[in-house]
Amino acid sequence: MVSFVLSSCDDGNIEASALTVDPSQLFTCDNTRPFPLYNITQNEVMILNLSQNLLNESITGDTPKTATLNSGQLVYRSFSDNVNKTFFCAAIQPIDPVAQSEFISTGGVASIDTRANMNEAGDTLSFTHTINLLNVNLAQGDKEIRIENLLYGFIEIPKVK
After folding, report:
1. DSSP for the chain, written as a single string
2. For the chain, which terminus, N or C, has the lower number of CB atoms within 10 Å?
3. Which domain holds residue 67?
């Protein structure tokens, strides 16, 4: 698990809360269409929405793929109670719990490292994508959150046959 402190300034008052991100908890509702990506910790979620071609089958080697995070591609949201995968993947989202706070990306970079997972015969079975968030700014009105470097998570996507 990775922890970081979210802090913001509101008329001189500093508000802070800690978000613990577990990189192994990254998920999508459909492995054939890997976006958006969710990372949930109890009543908080970070939702990442990137171009689908970033999680393709090209191995990155020593240089990860990068994507500039524009407005709304990363969302941090806190809820009135714990949420889980079922909440986000339901055909009709439940009305409870209620979102209490939402910060939306205004800039930053997602770095994606892609590695092949092979069987003993050397055949590629799937790809593991490791996603890091770099120099991310999130905003809610005049409040801002800065994330300098965060391991957002890793996700395994089956090889397209």
Report:
1. -EEEEEEEEETTEEEEEEEEE-GGGEE-S-TTS--SEEEEETTEEEEE---GGGGSS---TTS-EEEE--TTSEEEEEESS---HHHHHSSS--S-SPEEEEEEEEEEEEEEEEEEEE-TTS-EEEEEEEEEEEEEEEEETTEEEEEEEEEEEEEEEEPP-
2. C
3. 2-158
pLDDT recorded at residue 39: 92
- Output 139 or 52, whichever has higher pLDDT: 139
CA atoms of 154 and 151, how far apart (whole Å) = 8
Count of structural domains, the chain: 1
Q: What is the pLDDT of residue 12?
A: 39
